[in-house]
Specification:
By secondary structure, the protein is mainly β. It is 0% helix and 48% strand. The protein contains no helices and 11 strands. The chain has strands at residues 2-6, 9-11, 17-24, 33-38, 45-50, 56-58, 66-71, 76-81, 90-96, 108-109, 113-117. β4 and β5 (45-50) form a beta hairpin. The chain is globular. The chain starts with a strand and ends with a strand.
């Protein structure tokens, strides 16, 4: 499995971005995919995950602002970022555990994409 995140950008507070994660190597249909971010000087933190069946899970700090979705036909998972805050500045990674459920640790990681929120 390989994952490639894209959609890096710099936006003002309150702005929006959409990140994409293309999964290659195997059909996306059977796999859960999540997003994790790492801010400068901080540990990685989970943001959201979507199961193979399309059930989405979110960390409390992004509920109502971020939306995860998937398009199996395009082997792509998206993360829509809205109402961005300066504290959302981080490198965003997509990852999968090679299974269909979200509760297992991630074992495959893509390279990150940088989101900068600044006025």
């Amino acid at each position: 499995l390989q994952l490639q995140a894209s959609g890096a950008g710099s936006v003002q507070p309150g702005g929006s971005l959409r990140l994409s994660c293309v999964v290659s190597g195997l059909p996306l249909d059977d796999y859960a995919v999540g997003w994790v971010r790492q801010a400068p000087g901080k540990e990685r933190e989970k943001i959201a995950c979507i199961s193979h069946g399309g059930i989405a899970y979110y960390s409390d700090f992004v509920k109502g602002r971020f939306t995860i979705s998937r398009d199996n036909a395009k082997n792509t998972v998206y993360l829509e970022l809205n109402s961005l805050k300066s504290e959302d500045t981080a490198v965003y990674f997509c990852a999968t555990n090679g299974r269909g459920v979200c509760y297992l640790p991630y074992t495959y990681w893509g390279k990150g994409t940088l989101v900068t929120v600044s006025s």
